[in-house]
Specification:
Layout lengths: L22 H9 L14 H7 L13 H6 L12 H7 L4 H6 L4 H4 L16 H9 L1 H17 L2 E3 L7 E3 L3 H9 L3 H15 L6 H14 L7 H8 L6 H27 L1
Antiparallel strand pairs: 1-2
Helix pairs in contact: 10-12, 11-13
Length: 265
């Protein structure tokens, strides 16, 4: 692949830290989330809409295979990267490294879009199919997802349906996620990649978990905007996105009722 050079860090959509706002403002912002976008772009923007449509203007290039080789364990990520098995062994739990390194996420979760790391290749559909058929490669991909869940304070409890729950270090990691908005871009990428790798059914359990923590439990409140406007938008089925809309409304209703109950105790 040639010589590796440092890649620039990914940035949040605003590029600036979010200002402190009152709890009431947070709740009101969430309730109004459905009205913030035009009806034709409900739950999504152009980015996720193109993804759901399967990138109609993109064509597969059978000559490109860096992502396949990476997950087969024969090609190192770049820049300042490693082979996939070494990443799992040495980087898992090294939260400082996973936070500050900005070139690995495009290798672990390739999608059919260009990222900030120009040394990472866009995913080709023939690669995605080959990774799914390769038992060792698909196992490595699933392990990558588990590593990032751990980084975010979560763990995969069911490899069949994608159910997630809090990890042992959830308080520390949730606090970090609330204050590290560039990770929201990473999560969008991860969710898109899950769909490309045949794990579309993993998205909804993750999103439900985030919504419950953000709205009802209040532990991931700063992730709510990205969840509603981007992560839900990666769900390819209309009925799944509608289900998440209803679930969000139910959580706000449940939250309001519990607070009202506490006022009368």
């Amino acid at each position: 692949m040639g010589q590796c050079y440092p890649s620039p860090p990914e940035r949040s959509s605003s590029g600036k830290p979010r200002k402190n706002i009152s709890e009431e403002s947070k709740k009101e912002r969430g309730r109004n989330a459905f009205r913030q976008l035009p009806e034709s772009h409900h739950w999504s923007d152009h980015d996720t809409k193109v993804y759901r449509e399967g990138y109609p203007n993109k064509k597969d290039n059978p000559k490109l295979n860096h992502n396949l080789k990476f997950y087969q364990g024969t090609l190192s990520s770049c820049p300042d990267g490693d082979f996939i098995d070494n990443i799992h062994k040495k980087w898992w739990g090294d939260y400082d490294l996973l936070e500050r390194h900005h070139g690995y996420i495009q290798w672990l979760f390739p999608i059919r879009e260009s990222g900030m790391n120009w040394q990472a290749q866009e995913l080709q559909m023939h690669e995605a199919k080959a990774i799914q058929k390769d038992e060792k490669a698909s196992e490595r991909f699933l392990k990558s997802y588990e590593m990032m869940l751990d980084f975010y304070g979560m763990k995969l409890v069911d490899r069949n349906n994608g159910q997630v729950q809090r990890s042992e270090k959830w308080k520390e990691r949730f606090h970090h996620l609330n204050h590290s908005m560039h990770n929201y871009l990473r999560i969008t990428r991860i969710l898109k990649c899950l769909g490309e790798m045949g794990l579309e059914h993993f998205k909804k359990p993750f999103i439900r978990f985030i919504l419950n923590e953000a709205i009802y439990k209040g532990t991931l409140d700063r992730t709510l905007d990205s969840c509603l406007n981007y992560w839900v938008g990666t769900l390819r089925k209309d009925e799944d996105r509608q289900e998440m809309e209803e679930y969000t409304k139910q959580l706000f209703h449940k939250k309001d009722n519990s607070q009202l109950t506490l006022m009368w105790l």
